[in-house]
Amino acid sequence: MLILCVCSDGFESWNVTSLSVPNEYQLSLSQVVHPDGMDHLTNFWSFNMRYALYLSGEIHTDWRDQIKRAVEMNGLPVEILTPNTDHDSSDNCGDELLGAEENAFWKDHKAAKINSMRHMTALKRADIVVVRFGEKYRQWNAAFDAGIAVALGKSLIVEHAPELTHPLKEIDAAAHAVAENTEQVIETLKYLCLDY
């Protein structure tokens, strides 16, 4: 992102400077009174770090909503990205958007390819990926997202119950943090946002 800065040291002298700022910074326009007490204003840009956070994994509980509420309540500098969490529309998007398939393999194949556009875009944009493994279903897609996150060099937080430690040991070993519940994920995010 290229920012054009215009600064004034009086009414007649102007200095125009370009400043390159990474996309992960949130920019806000501020105004300050000139130090000599004159009533004209000088505009300047201030920027703060923001995290892009992708919430991957099971879609049958409200864990994403808990994180969204915590981000809002605590004013954390976090942008939240998610997959489509409506199970039926996720499963049926291929048929509904591109025409019905008689064979279940091709129905699932079309839906997976369409959904992967959103998943891959979010994974690439994310600074931090949280992957939650629920207790009821085997979430191969969550494991796949965790692997892609690691391959892309993303920071990875894994959440699962202690009972899943053994089957997820390789994923846990690749993660930067392993949480047993959503509250631990929230506390980790709050810590990562200190002084931001």
Describe this structure in words.
- Mean pLDDT is 82; it is low at 1-20, 25-34 and 38-47.
- Helix content is 38%, strand content 29%.
- Helix 1 runs parallel beside helix 6 (182-192) and helix 2 crosses helix 3.
- The chain is an alpha/beta fold and 196 residues long.
- The longest helix has 22 residues, at 104-125.
- It has 6 helices and 9 strands.
- The strands form 3 sheets. The chain has a 5-stranded parallel sheet, with helices on both faces.
- Helix 1 (63-74) links the parallel strand 5 (51-57) and strand 6.
Which regions are unreliable across 5 or more consecutive residues at pLDDT < 50?
1-20, 25-34, 38-47
Outline: globular
CA distance, first residue to last residue: 20 Å
- Name the beta content range: 25-35%
Based on CA atoms alone, the radius of gyration comes out at 22 Å
The total count of helices amounts to 6
Strand neighbour order, sheet with most strands: 6-5-7-8-9
Number of strands: 9
Topology (elements, then pairings):
Layout: E1 2-8, E2 14-20, E3 25-33, E4 41-49, E5 51-57, H1 63-74, E6 78-81, H2 87-98, H3 104-125, E7 128-132, H4 140-151, E8 155-159, H5 169-174, E9 177-179, H6 182-192
Parallel strand pairs: 5-6, 5-7, 7-8, 8-9
Antiparallel strand pairs: 1-2, 3-4
Helix pairs in contact: 1-6, 2-3
